[in-house]
Amino acid sequence: MFESLSDKLKSTLKNLRGEGKLTQEHVDAALKEIRMALLEADVNYKVAKDFVEAVRAKAEGQEVWQDLKPHEQVVKIVYDELVNLFGGTSSRLVFTKQIPNVVMIVGLQGSGKTTSTGKIAKWLADNQERKPLLVSVDVYRPAAREQLRVVGGAVKQAVFQDRETNDPLTLVRGAMKHAEEVGYDTLIIDTAGRLHIDDELMDELEKIKAETKPVEVLFVADAMTGQDAVRSAEEFHKRVGITGVVLTKMDGDARGGAALSIKQVIGQPVKFVGVGEKYDAIEPFYPDRIAQRILGMGDVLSLIEEVQGKIDETEAKKQLEKMTSNQFTLEDFRAQLGQMKKLGSMSKLMKMLPEQMTGGLQMTDEQSEQVEVQLKGTEAIIDSMTKQERRDHKIINASRKTRIANGSGKTIAEVNQLLRQYEQMKKMMQQMNRGGLFSKLAGSAMGGLGGGLGNMLGGGLGGMFGGGSKPDFDNSYDEATDSLSKRLKKKKRHKKRRK
Amino acid sequence: MAFFWKRNKDKFSTSTLGLDKSIEELQAQEAAVEREFGVRFNKAIAKTRDSINNKLDTIFESRKQIDEGFLDELEEMLISTDIGVSTTFQVLDAVRKGVSRQEIKDLDALKRAMKNELLGILHGSKAKGVASETEVPETIKPYVLMVVGVNGVGKTTTIGKLAQRIKMEGNQVMICAADTFRAAASEQLEIWSERAGVPIIQQKQGTDPAAVLFDALKSAQARNADVLIVDTAGRLHNKSNLMAELEKMKRIAGREVERAPHETLLVIDAVTGQNGLEQARQFTKVAGVTGIVLTKLDGTAKGGIAVAIAKELNLPIRYVGIGEQVDDLMVFDPEKYVNGLFN
After folding, report:
1. Residues 262..281 of B with a Cβ closer than 8 Å to A: which?
2. For the whole model, what pTM was predicted?
3. Which of A74, A94, A382, A467 is 20 to 30 A distant from A131 in Cα terms?
């Protein structure tokens, strides 16, 4: 769909290649493209303008690194600048000793406040050992309070209710008192959605704030918001003082440029990112991920090229066909593992995948070793199966499991775990299949190959480590034109330099 | 814009057309409705209009002539309405041409040129044909209207308003609560259905939406309902399994009622940015969207993305939501919208 910035810059700067310095000409042409990319990602036009100027100042006259093409260098400057602007991650909410600590959730209608309230409550309970109480003061939208009650039930957190009153302030007071009495240390207030032009409702927010003195006021913003994002954030900030931003619906394919705009204009950090319908689909904010997304990059390409070089192409094609026709057997699973080993160490592989795919997993060398040991074990288990078993895992009953476990020197539990993983993966592939992903990818042999393996890594392995997110394959695979080795070298240098 | 919903007009035409009134009286009545609509619509998008107008005026005042610097500022102004980079360029090109041909010399001419360009886009999408109640013969019942969109754009509210309006015009309306996913979605719709006094078909959370739809279709046929409005769960357009679910619903509808769904409306929030295009693209692919409902136009957002959608995908804007009240859902009128932006 979108052309990545990197590709656009490449074609723009093609004719200007081969100089030792980024010239004025380079920079001008590049900045124009960058501005367009930002605008298409819904970055506010004023913010985009300022940003482009900041990049100009950095880019002009800079020495071109050896072996880095001008467009690559510009992308790097832009990317670094974006990451820099977003700042570090600070998802932990800071609480005081006061009981209860109040967290107010505010935002426009339909931005995802109630769902976020539930997610944040669960996050705080799971990660910061808080005991939250939820209350909805949205007395306007039909069934809004009912929705929070259901959400609260789903995340197993207490919800304060008082059907007697339709007054937000009475509700808040009641909730505060209840929290004090029962000992909930955190009160999360789900406020009514509003259009910020509504003075009356803004007044109400101010009153609730005065009454509860919240430690955090989190502004929920939809990642799909356009140019208006800044205005609403500004207005909320002016009236109630935002302390952080929750960016929702990032599991969609919006670029999320609004995040940059809001951060720039109100100066408050993005603290959480909503990435799915499930209540644990909330993540801390990673600047590098959103920077990549706004710019439409991802280092998937270099990985694919590496894969391309090392894997026997016909073998991979055969497997792709099998996956597509949904006959992904344990034998194929075993073959995939073998191929993965050819690629080298896991930690290296993980570094190469964009973070959306690995779920932000970073691996130290020890961890990588551990995983490799695990993989070896997995291979051993599969090797201990008969051919029949490998082709149809359903026939593996208790006595077969005992034999396999003995044969591979593993426990029955480990055998069970492997079968579970395999089944999950198979299911996932079926789903992807239905979505038409494979049929699309199969169009180009190389693309298909990368996609197939990428899924293995992103979904299969991520699942194995218990933290995988669904791989994101919006990037187009057809455009891998540069020679493999060059890109790889570049990639490694990037890593070193960043450290 | 005297009527909202055209189908079944003649059923109650004797009373509503007022055969007892003179032509002058009728015209006056119509004009009053028209004015009132215009007034409210203008009020709703006043914020939008003010900022565009003021900006244009200030830009022009500080420069006194249309040069490259002026066009740069104009570009920023257009971008800020979310109409997208390519629509912006189209408008700018038209302005540039007009300037070089000496046709645009003052602010009024400039505004006129921009207006024409935007109107051209909006009319272009309408020329392709608008799926609506007038296209479907009365013998096919119920008229199935499916409402789709991403999460939080105002689908349920839109349905509540639509149901009430269509019922007020003498049609028997039913609602199908096929959003079985979001907590309390069904309850929210139930409240709307009570307000409107129309029956609602629902099942417990987590039921297969296609099954709910099937029930609703059967029930609507049994009760001989004129219109069935189908609420669907909000879904991000890149979730293939959810989109497949929508496809299934469409299939079921078509199997039970000839040519159904007769109309599929994609609801888009006026604050949506460039991702709206992708939404429209995906939903059209899967659910065969026939028109857009632009909601929450009463904020400061300009809803320019609808113009971009009209341009790129040829999808007409059918209705706009400009407030919380039931009759704040209106039939979209390109002239009024564009005039509202500049006058």
Report:
1. 269-276, 278-279
2. 0.70
3. A467
